[in-house]
Specification:
Elements (H helix, E strand, L loop, with lengths): L5 E4 L1 H4 L15 E4 L11 E4 L1 E9 L1 E6 L2 E6 L2 E5 L5 E6 L4 E8 H8 L6 H9 L2 E3 L2 H18 L7 H22 L9 H17 L6 H7 L4 H12 L3 H19 L4 H7 L5 H12 L3 H6 L1
Parallel strand pairs: 1-3
Antiparallel strand pairs: 2-9, 4-7, 4-9, 5-6, 5-8, 7-10
Helix pairs in contact: 2-5, 4-5, 6-8, 6-9, 7-8, 9-11
């Protein structure tokens, strides 16, 4: 049997195709590509390590995503999630499509508090193309222009915060488009979504003090196994993984936005020791807190 060679594309590797970014591109967590044609996915199997929102302005593209065939045409909005498998990409000669590429950790931070988005996000994992009306296309265009402006404002004191806010607004616009098209949660998943929403609400409030799945399960009056199954069904990520996402995102925020030393961060986040925090952060972030602060 012929071996399938999967090309894993990191965020930094894709960044060389960036057309709209800041002057300090190496520190960017989101960038834009004016035309995805230049990435040349033809005859390759791609596994992106980042999230991509792609808007087709003209032409069409046929492709296979996670084993299912799709076609994107003029006016469509395509969502490509990290670790998907993209292959058999065939672009029409007149294809013009813009893309907004987001680092996975940055995306997690952007979406963490947007609980109402998750039912729609899960739908997009199964049906990644959203067909837009002309009015909806205009909304997408305006959001893209605002994000492009933010990307080109390195002097803005709150540039990162403004980017997060602009992206959140754009995602809420996508939710509204779903609602208008009558796309919602399948009835059999309502209970799982309810548990997921309750879990995320409690987690956003308690992650500094509590990092055990069993504690959250007890708070929701369900078993740890049931909690984990419901959370995994809805989000594709375990409850334990979500806890670490919240904690690591908070550590990164403190390292990036405060002058607190590692000992003080350890105390603020209720870790038993600096060594424990360091090992926890390295396990989930791939580097030490000190290394992250220098990036």
């Amino acid at each position: 049997m012929r071996h399938r060679q999967i090309n894993r594309i990191s965020f930094r590797m894709a960044q060389r195709f960036s057309s709209i970014h800041s002057r300090e591109q190496s520190k960017d967590e989101v960038f834009a590509i004016e035309n995805i044609q230049q990435m040349n996915f033809h005859d390759r199997i791609i596994q992106p390590q980042f999230m991509t929102l792609c808007h087709c302005k003209s032409g069409s593209v046929d492709f296979v995503l996670n084993g299912a065939s799709h076609r994107m045409v003029k006016g469509d909005l395509l969502f490509l999630f990290a670790d998907c498998i993209l292959e058999k990409v065939e672009c029409s000669p007149d294809l013009v499509a813009t893309a907004l590429v987001q680092d996975t950790a940055f995306l997690q931070e952007t979406l963490m508090s947007m609980l109402r988005l998750w039912p729609y996000l899960i739908h997009l994992m199964r049906q990644p193309i959203l067909h837009l009306t002309e009015d909806a296309q205009e909304r997408v265009r305006l959001n893209y222009e605002l994000l492009s402006l933010r990307l080109q404002q390195p002097q803005h004191t709150f540039r990162r915060e403004a980017l997060v806010a602009s992206l959140q607004a754009a995602y809420f616009d996508v939710c509204d488009l779903f609602r208008r098209q009558g796309i919602g949660t399948h009835p059999t998943s309502i209970r799982a979504f309810s548990i997921f929403e309750q879990f995320m609400t409690v987690l956003s409030r308690e992650y500094v003090q509590h990092r055990d799945v069993s504690w959250y399960a007890n708070e929701l009056n369900i078993t740890s196994k049931y909690l984990s199954e419901a959370v995994k069904t809805v989000s594709g990520r375990t409850a334990s993984s979500w806890i670490s996402v919240f904690v690591v995102t908070e550590i990164k925020s403190m390292l990036r936005n405060t002058d607190l030393n590692i000992k003080e961060i350890t105390q603020e986040l209720n870790f038993p020791s600096q060594s424990f925090l360091g090992k926890y952060f390295r396990k989930h972030a791939g580097m030490t807190p000190s290394e992250y602060r220098k990036v």
